[in-house]
Amino acid sequence: MRKRQRLDKNQERELEYFIKDKNHSIKEIKKAQVILMLNKRLDLETIEYITGYSRRQCFEIRKKYLVKGIVAIEDKKRKNPKELLSKKQREEIIAVIRNSSPKDSHYDSDYWTTSIVGDLIWREYQIKYKSKTSIYLIFKRAKFSYHKPDRKYQARNEQEVSQWKREAEIKLNQALRETNTVVLTADEMSLSTQTTIQKVWLPQGEYPKIEVATKRDSRSIYGFLNIKDGTEHAFKTKWQNMYITYEVLGELRKIYPNQKLLIFWDKAPWHKGSKAQQFIKEDGNIETFDFPRAAPEENPQEHVWKSGRSKVTHNEFIKDINQATDEFIGYLNETKFNYSFLGFSAG
Q1: 98 plus 214 within the same structural domain
Q2: Distance, CA of 226 to CA of 309 (rounded, Å)
Q3: Are 129 and 121 in contact (CB under 8 A)?
Q4: Among 89-98, 100-109, 114-123, whose mean pLDDT is lowest?
């Protein structure tokens, strides 16, 4: 009897997801099922009965998959999604997408989406596509590309942000002239066992395989970026509250025992709480300056978090939250971040 090579866990998941994807044909799904059933050691008569593939075909399908990956079971002869629109109708829709906005067609949106275009096609021609793939092709023919919108915070007040910049620049420039003053931008974040996914580029036929946690656990991180030299000071905590902020400020003071600290941070309740304010008052050599509402892009510490996630935690299965947080903090505290703050950057 021919020896059956076992699949690893990632290959099993890849095939399971492939089978669940409604965009694949019955023929493609049967090939994936053959490979999984062989892996589960089902007898060949049963596999042949279910799929219609002979013993020789089953082993050939699995062999090609093990060599080439998922691309080996994809149907190369499969046609593109059926064109329900006529050529003239398709050109009319493309012209609308290119030359107008959704508001011109009485949609309350500044940007075209698949759902809006699908509804427009239904309104104009009473044609409804069952999947978004055909609408993606329409966008492609219209020479549109996909973009994820940036966030725009409703609470943001541009006049308030401009006023803050003027006042903050005065405060920053004064502090930069003082040799014994340390300027820090601060923020907090949570790191959890919930896997964060980031787009990656791979050769055709290869697919990313990400293990995802089912149980969620988290740790908080307090971060302070030294604007003058790009040094990061990150601290692991269980939560974010005024008592923990009190303790973290104490740890920060150990790093800078004699310097004046100018800390730019937001108006989080754990910053304004009585315990945190008690430490600042008792210390006597700490000054804080609040960021404006809904303007996280003004804080360089936000970029530090993004860099840490990209380098350490994106696309990673986090099994041990404490170990992952320690590695995250280790990267931050060992790296120089020369981000610009109000026009000034370290180095």
Answers
A1: no
A2: 20
A3: yes
A4: 100-109
